[in-house]
Amino acid sequence: MVRARLRAALTAFLLLAPACGPEPVPTPTPLPKVLYIGVTTDHPGWSTHEAGTNRRTGFDIALADWLRSRLARDVTFVDLRLEERIEALEDHKVHMVISTFSITDERRKVIDFAGPYMITRQGVLVRKDDHRIKNYDDLTRKNRNICVASGTTSQEQLQPFNGKGLALTVEPALQGCFERLVNKQVDAFSTDQLVLHGFAKSRLETRVLDDLTFGAQEQYGIGLPNHDKSTCDLLAGHLKTFLYEGKWEEFLERNLHPANLAAYKPLDLDPCEDGTT
């Protein structure tokens, strides 16, 4: 009788046990048939849009198109200014942003990232026939006029020298600094070195100082809405293929042609953040 009661109690426990366990993991929401991808329109070598046409070119455009093929989805590009990228993700105007988007702790508080797919540091662009700047001291201690875009890492890094070893010219956008350099209104233009390679390729009278970099390493990732771990995991898997099966080198060489491709290649991807945090 006792054994019969024990068997009955054990059976009842096993039947009730699943109800006391953890909540089931929700099935990831599948990607929509049409992906809205935020991009910029005026970054040579990275993302440009030829006015009056559907023609877009650049590394980030090539990456977006490669992902479109891998994911078997259609893509609609959404034009964004750099300062609009986070808001577009927060307001769900786009599914992702592919636009030289630096991964930072501050940004991770409000959006997610898949990546990095590229690394770089701050660099310097000069006119091809100007050889006065060769090193960091030449840049910061010889009273050169250096142009930076507002809110960029280069502005942050060079601001302490403003009025003490250089004159800082601040433009609202990168294109403004590039035009000032070409028109001989400033001595140099500073931002992410790989972005400068794109500008240099568009105007052959300028050149990147390949041996002059400064500041912390910048890591570019694909921006995603916050707590979108399932999409992040999916994109991270594809980015590993992209990085290590040849397309990364092909796209970088074709669009930017830097001196040392390997210097810009990430060793690994960051883990995707837990969507519940």
Automatic annotation (TrEMBL):
Residues 34-259 form the Solute-binding protein family 3/N-terminal domain. One of its GO terms (cellular component) is extracellular region. GO terms for biological process: amino acid transport. Residues 1-21 form the signal peptide. Keywords: Signal, Transport. The keyword Amino-acid biosynthesis does not apply. It comes from the Bacteria. It holds the Pfam family SBP_bac_3. InterPro entries: Bact_solute-bind_prot3, Solute-binding_3/MltF_N. Belongs to the bacterial solute-binding protein 3 family. This is Solute-binding protein family 3/N-terminal domain-containing protein. It comes from Sphaerisporangium album.
